[in-house]
Fold D-galactonate transporter.
Amino acid sequence: MKDMVQTQKIGRSSSVAAQASKARVLIAVMLFVTVVINYMDRANLSIAMPAIADEMDLSKAQQGLLLSAFGWTYAALQIPGGWLVDRIPPRVLYPACLILWSIATAFMGVIGGFVALIALRLLVGVFEAPAYPINNRVATAWYPERERATVIGFYTSGQFIGLALLTPFLSWLQSVLSWHWVFIVTGTVGAVWGAVWYTFYREPRDSRANDAEIDLIREGGGLVDLVDEQQPEHPAVTRTDVATVLGRRKLWGIYLGQFCLTSTLWFFLTWFPTYLVEYRGMDYIKSGFLASLPFVAALVGVLFSGVFSDFLLRKGVSLGVARKGPIIVGLLLTVAMIGANFTDSTAMVIVFLSIAFFGNGLASITWSLVSALAPERLLGLTGGMFNFIGNLSSIATPIVIGLLVTDDSFAPGFVYMTVVTAVGIASYVFLVGRVERVRS
């Protein structure tokens, strides 16, 4: 009898899948493009930094401070950003954020001066703060559980594709014109995309998705009614809500793990181009090309990770193994970064760093754990806390490396990154435990 019921469920699921429209494919593409722009506007400063430092005669400590400015406001506003995500529909909130951070970015190319650049970079951090909680909310509303890691892997790959393809272009643009145009061009692109998002994005029930696709998403664990633009009021966040997102060991496991994971990302987003230019003696064009190679490796890692994780889930592997396995293996590979301290060959340095960033990409489906662990009612708040603690690395990494390295040696920076990665591995192994949704 049980086999008959199971066969009927499988048959119904297959029938629904066959009849379902593919509106969620467009949503995945829109998330992907948004992430490309998001990370382009985070990394443009690192590309321009050697030229800015030379023009303004900045010390390593000053460079670290400027590179960290984005992180101060970005991390601090993750909780308020998550609160906004639970209250303002993505169709409205995302384009508003896109346009505002793009304007601040463009002005970085217009207004010169060290203090002005810090102030504008702080503003970019303010308006980018809700971005990844919005991505997570959109993914949770639009995709069944068995597709979610693939989608998260796909749109997360946007950060690496954008950086891999755009780093050489922006380096060329800087060499042909000046560093000012790096910010003007990237800011203009973001503002245009904000208008595109508002024009085309809709919630599942308000979109072109047919009833079969809505059923497919809902029956697969997608929260299709999560965002209701007609709902006039949302309950205030209570102390109990905050205690829930701060008082669960499982959640702390992913918070700390994310800090360690994103520390590697922020090394590549801040100090990596400077490392190639100043410590490896490369020019802007050559450094732009070589800087893109680890991002290509990370792209391969993140695309494989999402697809492989969902494949394991469909084959009956537990949610914990399917989600945590690629993350832990990826962090283990990231330790290869320390190899850069033991070679004088630039080619071998790029190999070690490409292996490390492949691992970082492999581990970058961590948002799938937020979707799986966060209380349903507190998705935005949990995502905000996750991104807040994770992106404290955007402050720590540029400043700590700037203080550790000397004019002659970058080795202490790689030691710091290796130790942080080891802490991340321990966090996922010992704190997260069984993957199941936390009750609020």
In short: The mean pLDDT is 81. The chain is about 80% helix and 0% strand. The CA atoms of residues 156 and 416 lie 25 Å apart.
